Amino acid sequence: MGKLAINGGEKVVTRPLGKAWPIRDEREEQALLDVARSGAWWRGAYPEAARSKVGQFEDAFAKLHDARHCVAVTNGTQAIECALKSLGVEAGDEVLVPGLTFVASATAIALVNAVPVFVDVDPETYNMDPAAMEAAITGKTRAAVVVHNGGYPCDMDRVLEVGKRKGIAILEDSAHAHGSQWRGRGVGALGDIGTFSFQMGKTLTCGEGGAVVTNSSELAEKAYSFHHIGRLSGRPFYEFHRVASNLRMTEWQGAILLSQLSRFPEQVETRERNARYLAQGLKEIEGVDPIDRDPRVTRWCFYYWNFHYRQEQFAGLTRDRFIKALAAEGVPVGIGAHGQPIYRNPLFKRMNFGRTGCPIQCPLHGEPVDYSQVRLPVSERLYETQALSLAHALFLGDTTEDMDLILEAIRKVRANVDELR
Ligand SMILES: Cc1ncc(COP(=O)(O)O)c(C=O)c1O
After folding, report:
1. Which residues' Cβ are closer than 6 Å to ligand 1?
2. pTM: predicted TM-score of the whole model, two decimal places
3. Separation of 47 CA from ligand 1 center, angstroms?
4. Could you say which of 3.40.640.10, 3.20.20.10, 3.40.30.10, 1.50.10.10 is the CATH number of the domain covering 26-260?
């Protein structure tokens, strides 16, 4: 028997860390009851849509992100589809997307008949590398879907500069980044258009849901139309202008989101306080580094708190063995909200696009595409050896006690690393 829990020793953490997610009480119950009793179960039941729960949420969420417009939708994947369609992305267009993100960032591109082009990420931030982004632009590139991975904002100065110079639209997939700010402004509407997810794991949730935000009234009107079966605001209800689906959010979701939003500022503060404490502690342990935070990241509201593992500084212990040793000590560390680089999934690796190969083998695109040949060295290295992350709910403890336990567990693994080799 060794000292480490993985070898039969005593665990450092013997209770759940953080708080159980989602946080809820009688306020959410009351909110649902109110909707049930009102009989107004969809926003159209209100003479003025803005007064519905969904309408109120849209206003509040737009404000949180310094956006002029918000359209609430069914989920984060369809939010990206809706935003891409609003940008005018169509068959034959290429859209850039980071190699290391959740698969929906890329599948949404194919779902609007465009061709995803994978771009490598920055090893410090896990976000699309602006230099690699620029190098991937061709005459067919119409837009880039940049992801604030884990909630850590992309270098929007460079992303926007490249987008402007090259004439491509910037869509911020902000599914991990509710409340995050770059230079004091909310992410999402820094580029042309942005999207969010309110799926249950997210830091603002109603079980399933999404939103599109923008500062452009033209794009907002298109997003409204694409989420509402092709209707136009102010036009007759039975008049349709586009091929579009029904992506409307229900009043149940709107009510829960309003309630969750009232808890949000305090949760952000708690997470930020605990994360700063943890980052400080990690700096004193060789082999585990917090992200070197850019001062322009004025608020990092994280879904996953990403950090780095350095095998060479951790006495050669592999990252995966480190994760297992920490799990045995009672600390659930992951590698982020993505898994393997997207192009390694069977969908892309086996070019699994159905009988016709559409939309990837598209005469309007006219170029051969073979995702089995894609190699993004940084994304692959991060996935295989460097990425570490802690889920946001672990940071919701009222004191820094949980952070101390996490640090103690890491220090213990470090001190007894010889047991693992
Ligand atoms: C980066 C990213 N984009 C998009 C989505 C899709 O959101 P949803 O699950 O609400 O469809 C997710 C979901 O986790 C995500 O992580």
Report:
1. 75-77, 101-102, 104-105, 147, 173, 175-176, 197, 199, 210, 337
2. 0.98
3. 32
4. 3.40.640.10
